[in-house]
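Final report, results section. Input specification for complex C-07:
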Amino acid sequence: MIPRYQRILFWSLVGCILLMGAFLLHGCREAHKRLTALNDATPLAAPTTAATEEVNLYLASDAEATIHSTRAQVALPQDPSLKARALVEHLLAQYALPDSTHPLQSGPSVDDIFLLADRTHQNSGGRITVNLHGSFADTHPSGIEVEQLTLDSIIGTLHAAFPEFTEVRFLVDGQTRETLAGHASLDRTYPLIDTTARPAAPSEAATQP
Amino acid sequence: MSCESKSFAPFLAVFLSRKTAFDDLRCVTASRELLYNPENVIHQRNHLPAAVAAVLLTASPLASQAPPAAPSPPKPQPALYRNLIVLDPAHGGRDKGAQLSASAAEKDVTLAFAQRLRPALVAQGFTVVSTRDSDPPDELETDQRAGMANHNRPLACIVLHAAPAGSGVHIVTSSLPASGPSAGRALTWNKAQAPAIAMSTRLANEVGLALDAAHLPVLMLRASVPPLDNLICPAIAVELAPLENTSKNATSAADTAYQQRAINAIAAGVASFRTHNAPPPTPAPAPRTGVAP
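Structure output:
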């Protein structure tokens, strides 16, 4: 005859084993989902020997809410679309570094960049369309300041590299999306301008009509 | 599709048109020259537009062709109600916004903030309309929020946000380029804020100065945040970010005492904006009596 307390202990241990098994299974599924989301399935261009060139990177700082321009040597492909994509990926990769002043999660960020020249109007420039990766938008920190700084950083960098283009539009996974992470609007066209900025302090003079 | 109609000239109609096959613009008829009502409209310091408006109203075809026995046309609605404020607590419903802490979602913090800001504004003599007073089951669309605010024609619209990162209070105005008030009678829906950018900047500076006086760190930003670009009234977004202390622990945006300091300053700033930009209407002079012919 097995004592009652031993039977209770046995079935309790069996219950614990089942719970732990379910917990492990759930954890494995979540990890698999996370890794799948970060997996970049975009085909890459064939490796070519690309000379490094000096580019202007417009880097954001969350603490000061500023964008400042720095020069960097980056190996870029010759094709303009690939060059733009490599440039923006390099820029966003800077934010995944441990000492970043505008920390973003690492992983694939840009799917494609299309450079659309406007041939209908002689004086107007073309448009750049940046197709962001869905996981980049999904994992981007939420907030007006941080989201706008990311957009301004991309806009300023593209403006410095492609001054002949005048506007930029953002897509996420090929679709229009209202905001980047709940705040900064993505359903409008932004002018490609120098976004070097420093926030102004409130002033008495600016309150006067 | 054209939104112009001369028969609407004396009225202060603001309407939104549906999308058509030819354009996807939503038109807001708001002829800034004509938006003037001496009784309760925002009073401009420069009285020239008012004089122009008065002349145009008098000389409008509707006024000149109306028969004398016909009932007088309906009283024009004011351009902006100088004592009305629209609050827009951002997010809500399935849209939780940012996760400020393990237990605080942005949608709840903005709603609580709006509910505390309302009595402070009422104490300053404002009537307050909020786009949401509870957490709705479905999220409010950006166009719904903007439509609600534009329909009420408030003195100012304040969009409330909260952030888990950053420092202090962020005052945000639209990043659209400013345009003149007489650019046309139809405004593009996505650029409806452009004529009001100058007023929005004044409002932001008034609130920023009040926050500065309350010893709260302020950042003045320009960004494209829904629904700022769609609003025709002076509009700002206020984003509460954590408040850094001398100790290592930052005060969260959900902190009630921190919110109350910001609320008092915002209410004072908006009241100052009303004083400087929309002074109370001066009573009409009493008719002279007893004058000998």
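The beta strands of chain B are 28-29, 81-89, 127-130, 154-162, 169-174, 186-187, 218-223, 235-240. Chain B is about 30% helix and 15% strand. This concludes the modelling results for the funded period.
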